[in-house]
UniProtKB/TrEMBL annotation, chains A, B:
<comment type="similarity">
    <text>Belongs to the Orn/Lys/Arg decarboxylase class-II family.</text>
</comment>
<dbReference type="InterPro" id="IPR000183">
    <property type="entry name" value="Orn/DAP/Arg_de-COase"/>
</dbReference>
<keyword id="KW-0663">Pyridoxal phosphate</keyword>
<dbReference type="InterPro" id="IPR002433">
    <property type="entry name" value="Orn_de-COase"/>
</dbReference>
<dbReference type="InterPro" id="IPR029066">
    <property type="entry name" value="PLP-binding_barrel"/>
</dbReference>
<dbReference type="InterPro" id="IPR022653">
    <property type="entry name" value="De-COase2_pyr-phos_BS"/>
</dbReference>
<dbReference type="Pfam" id="PF02784">
    <property type="entry name" value="Orn_Arg_deC_N"/>
</dbReference>
<feature type="domain" description="Orn/DAP/Arg decarboxylase 2 N-terminal">
    <location>
        <begin position="26"/>
        <end position="258"/>
    </location>
</feature>
<dbReference type="InterPro" id="IPR009006">
    <property type="entry name" value="Ala_racemase/Decarboxylase_C"/>
</dbReference>
<keyword id="KW-0456">Lyase</keyword>
<comment type="pathway">
    <text>Amine and polyamine biosynthesis; putrescine biosynthesis via L-ornithine pathway; putrescine from L-ornithine: step 1/1.</text>
</comment>
<protein>
    <recommendedName>
        <fullName>ornithine decarboxylase</fullName>
        <ecNumber>4.1.1.17</ecNumber>
    </recommendedName>
</protein>
<dbReference type="InterPro" id="IPR022644">
    <property type="entry name" value="De-COase2_N"/>
</dbReference>
Length: 377, 377
């Protein structure tokens, strides 16, 4: 919570939950990344928070952008980034979207299989591609599935295919899992990347770049290592696996760039119990839930810190749920959340660390509730 | 798939996934409900599909509306329903939203605890309330959590509280779980409801109504019983527990009213394997996923039938995923989906039974992808 957000909320009059993002925090985060990884280019993951204010700020600071769709490329360009600062980082692209990106000047594409290489070769000839490899994601709080990337053993084939089709086989990417709390998590993936560099070199192809992905955490309930610790650990791992022939590197922070810059103000709509049994857990219903912006509470993966006007009172376990008529719209039930026993209907609560993956996740109109309002100050 | 939808899709030229709903099917479903449960009023669950075309059709046929928010009440009124045909069926309501509903003429409210009764008594004095009770949901494919309703033992206290505060203690509601395949699932809940009627009568309060909720299924991969079978089974259970003193009854179908009326046309964006291992499962990526409208694939709960232009070819297990850069955007992985081995990038697929809980669930702009387009014809 910053003084600027506090002041904004003090003067807010309208109804309904809202996100407030302090752009000064985003700026500080960007500078911490560039200081901690001085030889690494920052490609902000636009999907984390694509608000024009965030994108313009970062474009002005010199950030590049990792984009997932044509719309995100257009947002990056509108924010002032030149096309050479944009990566089309989604490994799942329609060929006509690749063509549109190419038409806008984008020259860097992610691939993870032969078929995607062929699409890029046809629709964006001569451009750079990097191959995403699978990574086990141990230590991540929002671990990645096997959705993106190929087995490391397949990467050289994918990159060689690109080379043969006239693309520039540019490098390797991986993602160690979102909200990665282990600063050493990059080591094993960098070992794989170095092996792919060697394998490609043996085939006469010189790779240039390692995309270190995202995974940099934001502080939720538990403390997380500082970005400096990630920078030091990654640099050591790069030296360990690449020796003096350090590759060009890029990172794609999203959550780590904007997560701690945002706070959602919500309201307690109902506090109740399901029966008079003494062990019956209390239910607390907010005016925001899984479909209103807090989708990352899915499987109770992300546990946001919640501040209430009753902090300091005795805490009791509470099931926390959203306002919709959907029974899946329950946020913390397997492990109920400790909230003040005195919490009352109408109390405003502050949900911290909500600057990333909230606004765009919210449903268009589920149950008639509008999407999350957001202010970037 | 109806001929009208087929014709519409044949003439469609634009890009991206879309839902097409055949209103004739919705009309048939409405008539089947009124025929199968002739003494029961239908309150369509607006949240299932709140499109103006669906609401106007149903309002014209005489349907009432179950609403979850002020916005849904406004939609029901705009579609031509009078306020006496609208129930504010969400048990989690802000007091100022109850006041707004009251101002619009709504006189029927759901409650499940003392605090909610007090809100209704203050903001909508003299109106009717029904108390929702918990129900175990056995047999449902999308079972409900304990989010809504109180233990049956508590209901008489809740209703008596309403009575004392000048409200009309009107009845009891429950929900047997969405996509309920067991036509007998209403029996146990109706036994509870009858017990609450008796308990209230002993306290001098005469209840009038049982809200039988929703739960009526739509056909996905497996066949489901016809609505006539539900009607017969419910009527028998009513006679069993209420004898000749049958209460007024209402139902709140949502999925059962619109689910089978809609089809989503989507496109195969990528087909790939993660490695050359012979047992490696194939991945099929569509241009729609969990955040683009197919949220009910969460935990692989709902398995939609999918038609492809290659049906008839050999089927192979495929992990089915959406187009976003979110690793959670995977629809069927624990139990891969059988799809033709010949399926190719660019193929159009038809996802059946998608008329309910798709459009409004879709994210506003996650990864820059627009919400699901919809046409009601």
């Amino acid at each position: 919570m910053t003084e600027r957000i506090r002041e904004f909320l003090r003067n807010r009059r309208e109804d309904g939950p809202c996100l407030v993002v302090d752009l000064d925090v985003v700026r500080d985060n960007y500078l911490a990344f560039t200081k901690s990884l001085p030889d690494t280019r920052v490609f902000y993951a636009v999907k984390a928070n694509p608000s024009p204010e965030v994108l313009s700020l970062l474009a002005g600071l010199g950030s590049c952008f990792d984009t997932a769709s044509v719309a995100e490329i257009e947002m990056g360009l509108a924010a002032g980034a030149t096309p050479d600062r944009i990566s089309f980082g989604n490994t799942i692209k329609k060929e006509r979207d690749i063509a549109r990106a190419y038409g806008m000047g984008v020259r860097l594409y992610a691939v993870d299989c032969l078929a995607e290489v062929e699409k890029v070769a046809r629709a964006a000839p001569g451009t750079k591609v990097f191959c995403r490899i699978l990574c086990d994601g141990v230590g991540a709080e929002w671990p990645l599935s096997r959705k993106f990337g190929c087995a490391p053993e397949m990467a050289a084939d994918v990159l060689e295919h690109a080379h043969r089709l006239g693309l520039e086989a540019y490098g390797v990417s991986f993602h160690v899992g979102s909200q990665q709390r282990n600063t050493g998590a990059w080591d094993q993936a960098l070992a794989s990347a170095a092996a792919i560099f060697r394998e490609c070199a043996e085939r006469g192809i010189t790779l240039s770049m390692v995309n270190l992905g995202g995974g940099f955490p934001t502080k939720y309930l538990r403390d997380v290592p500082a970005v400096e610790a990630y920078g030091a650990s990654i640099f050591q791992a790069l030296r360990r696996h690449f020796g003096n022939a350090l590759p060009e590197t890029i990172i794609e922070p999203g959550r780590g760039m904007v997560g701690n810059a945002g706070i959602i103000e919500a309201e307690v709509v109902l506090v109740s119990r399901k029966s008079d049994a003494p062990d019956e857990v209390r239910w607390v219903y907010l005016d925001i839930g899984k479909f209103g912006g807090l989708a990352e509470t899915m499987d109770e993966a992300i546990r946001y810190p919640i501040r209430t006007p009753r902090d300091g009172d005795i805490l009791v376990p509470s099931v926390l749920a959203g306002p919709t008529c959907d029974s899946a719209d329950v946020m913390y039930e397997k492990e109920p959340y400790l909230l003040p026993v005195s919490l009352e209907i109408g109390d405003k609560v502050l949900i911290e660390g909500t600057g990333a993956y909230t606004t765009t996740y919210s449903a268009v109109a589920f149950n008639g509730f509008p999407p999350l309002k957001a202010y970037h100050i």
